[in-house]
Amino acid sequence: MHRRSFINLLGLSYAGSLLPNNFMNELYGNKNIKPVEGSWFEFQHHSIVEGKYWDSTLRNFTCDQWERKVKEISEAGIKYLVLLDVAVYGKTFYPSALLPKHQLACEDPLETVLSAADKYGVNFFISNDFFGEWTNVDIMMKDKEVHSLRVRAMNEVAEKYSHHSSFYGWYFPNETAVDGHYRDFFISYVNSCSMEARRLTPAAKTLIAPYGTRLVKADDEFVKQLEKLDVSFIAYQDEIGVNKTKVEESAGFFRNLFRAHEKAGRARLWADVEFFRFEGETYKSALLPAPWERVVAQLEAVSPYVDKIFIYQYTGLVNKPGTDIFAGHPDSAILYEKIFRGKEKKK
């Protein structure tokens, strides 16, 4: 099916609500679209203005509500969650001897969600940051004091939580812009994090999610950089939510990445599909759920080229209709109905 015909069909189904709830499930079955297997996850959004529609709700989530939110996500068919950060603004989201803790209704939300993930079969990638100023990622990757605190925190997190069966791996959230190629200091940062992760949790996987996807120059130099990067998975941001890439361009960018990763034969290629749009100015306004027709086109664009599709993000941007643990804009129920309804696990 040509892309134009495909999108026209989706528009008709949306406008008339004529197709059954399992329409999206049928599309997945037709192999045009890989299933959404993973999502980013957070306790509070790092950008206060962007988290307008869910931060206050999540701040007041009880431990029981966090447990049931993980259950909801699991029942939607998501198998992996990526915790964006374990600390931000000089405070942690877990009881720590290193920094004060954010005041949330749930005393230890990290323990709560990992215990729930153990129960419901979800694999977590646990962040190893933000132990510095998240808006200046270059400094966070280079600063020796931040590095020291990061390593101590990784040790603390591993000691407290790595016994969980759901502790699948680590996520390194200080992402870089790939301006043609990776910068050398980013490769050093990733490899030093991976070295510490392997020492603490030898079986754990590692994940990064760079941006600048549209700028990648997938030449021999880039392939050599991929060979140097000591990381299990690279989930490139499709950059459609941040208005840097058009949907019709995305497939070409991921096709080039696929070829480069095949040559390198190291980190597996995943996609980080942006489920959001901005309420106003990009980066300076609240995140809203993206129109579901656009989301479907995004998923279709990357599906032929990646092993797995992750989304940014379920938390705040997707909610099961009618739930009493609803956190986010009311339109987030639409994404659940159109993307995840029909894929729900049997209870």
> Averaging pLDDT over every residue, what do you get?
90
Biggest β-sheet strands, sense, barrel: 8 strands, parallel, barrel
CATH C-level class: Alpha Beta
Strand order of the largest sheet: 1-2-5-6-7-8-9-12
Query: Radius of gyration over alpha carbons?
Result: 19 Å
Classified in CATH, the superfamily is: Glycosidases
Q: What is CATH's topology name? A: TIM Barrel
Q: Note the gap between the termini.
A: 34 Å
**Range of strand content:** 5-15%
Helix content: 40-55%
Number of strands: 12
Helix-strand sequence: HHEHHEEEHEHHEHEHEHEEEHEH
Unreliable stretches (pLDDT < 50, length at least 5) are 1-28
Q: Outline of this structure?
A:
The chain has helices at residues 3-16, 23-29, 55-59, 63-75, 109-120, 137-142, 144-161, 184-200, 220-228, 247-264, 292-302, 332-340; strands at residues 36-41, 80-83, 87-88, 91-92, 123-127, 167-171, 205-208, 233-237, 268-274, 276-278, 287-289, 308-312. With 347 residues, it is α/β, with parallel strands linked by helices. It has one domain: Alpha-Beta Barrel (TIM Barrel).
Write a structural description:
Strand 7, helix 9 and strand 8 form a beta-alpha-beta unit. The strands form three sheets. An eight-stranded parallel β-barrel has the order 1-2-5-6-7-8-9-12, surrounded by four helices. The relative contact order is 0.16. With 347 residues, it is of the alpha/beta class. The chain has helices at residues 3-16, 23-29, 55-59, 63-75, 109-120, 137-142, 144-161, 184-200, 220-228, 247-264, 292-302, 332-340, and strands spanning 36-41, 80-83, 87-88, 91-92, 123-127, 167-171, 205-208, 233-237, 268-274, 276-278, 287-289, 308-312. The chain has a single domain (36-340), classed as Alpha-Beta Barrel (TIM Barrel), CATH 3.20.20. The longest helix has 18 residues, at 144-161. Helix 1 runs antiparallel to helix 11 and helix 10 runs parallel beside helix 11. 40% of the residues lie in helices and 15% in strands. It contains twelve helices and twelve strands. Residues 1-28 have low confidence and may be disordered. The chain is globular.
